[in-house]
Amino acid sequence: MMNNEGDYTVPIIGIDRLRINSDGVGVTTLVCFWGCPLSCQYCLNPQSWRTKTGIRNITPLQLFQEVSIDKLYFFATGGGVTFGGGEPLLYPRFLKEFHEFVEGEWKINLETSLNVPIESLQLIADCIDCFYIDIKDTNNEIYTRYTGKKNERVFANLAWLVEHIGEEKIVVRVPLIPDFNTISNVNDSIKFLKDKYKKITIDQFEYRKG
Length: 210
Fold this sequence. Notes:
Elements: E1 10-20, E2 27-33, E3 56-58, H1 60-67, H2 71-77, E4 80-84, H3 92-102, E5 107-112, H4 118-124, E6 130-134, H5 140-147, H6 152-165, E7 170-176, H7 183-196, E8 201-206
Parallel strand pairs: 2-4, 4-5, 5-6, 6-7, 7-8
Antiparallel strand pairs: 1-2, 1-3
Helix pairs in contact: 1-3, 3-4
């Protein structure tokens, strides 16, 4: 266990307890970070990148102590903590140090766009029990219009992740995005992913505007 976390803080926008089967198996606590490399048109948490109003700075130890209040629920249901955002992979050191405190007592999940430097992914890949990857769309033109960034890095990181941790720990979310893609585009994305990765779980759903 690391012991140099005392003055190391990261900004979070919220902690949501007692979520059931919505951010992983069992009862989970969702921890949302401030900061994101994307500017998605229908962002669910625009406060995570538009403003720093209402954020809170926290250390790995402080967060561990706070979420431990629900550890009995985690043990009983196979749940744990899910990191979302914003983009959790902007803070790989924090994730790694938090993992040192957990020491396998419960699961750690990650919701990510995967559009980050690969070094961030390499630092924490072995610390995560399940990656939930919001792929948006495999078509780079659609992805760029929707997020403001290109998606080449996403697929390079996904390939690295599959090679190093296996497909079983990965859920890829493929949304229907009103005004940006179609059912045909979604089906193309799913086919692309299934042709390339046989065991990845696909989560297909629709974004709701407003």
